[in-house]
Specification:
Structural class: mainly alpha
Order of helices and strands: HHH
Number of helices: 3
Radius of gyration: 20 Å
Shape: elongated
Strand content: under 5%
Distance between the termini: 56 Å
Largest sheet: none
Number of strands: 0
């Protein structure tokens, strides 16, 4: 490869990692400001807390997406060793578990029940 490609790829990976961390930190700060705003404007604390948890969960999920993307680039393009592949597999498993549990926390239902209405039935798609 060219002399510039590998350092550029490492820099890009680092930038994506920093972006993922920034998304998590800024998301938590934004969620904290939003909950303070709601509490100061007289909204019930339980509603504000529910919104806070959902917003923090979304920030973590989005930040994890960036971090996993950086790890994939690092494993595939920069350091394609068996050890880095196993580490990536572990990270993806942990991220999948976190994503699954955060989705349940945020939405209050199983991810595969997303397209069902409140009665548990599939929504109608119109006349057949």
């Amino acid at each position: 490869m060219d002399d510039w490609f590998l350092p550029a790829l490492k820099l890009m990976t680092r930038a994506i990692e920093v972006g993922g961390i920034a998304v998590i930190v800024l998301g938590i700060l934004g969620a904290s400001l939003a909950v303070l705003w709601q509490v100061l404007h007289g909204h019930p604390g339980s509603d504000a807390f529910t919104l806070y948890r959902a917003n923090v969960g979304r920030a973590i999920l989005l930040g994890l997406e960036f971090l996993v993307a950086a790890d994939i680039i690092n494993t595939v393009a920069i350091e394609p060793t068996l050890e880095s592949l196993l580490i990536l597999g572990g990270i993806v498993l942990i991220r999948t578990f976190l994503s699954f549990s955060l989705e349940i926390e945020i939405e209050g239902r199983w991810p595969w029940a997303r397209n069902r209405d409140d009665t548990g039935q599939q929504p109608s798609r119109g006349p057949a």
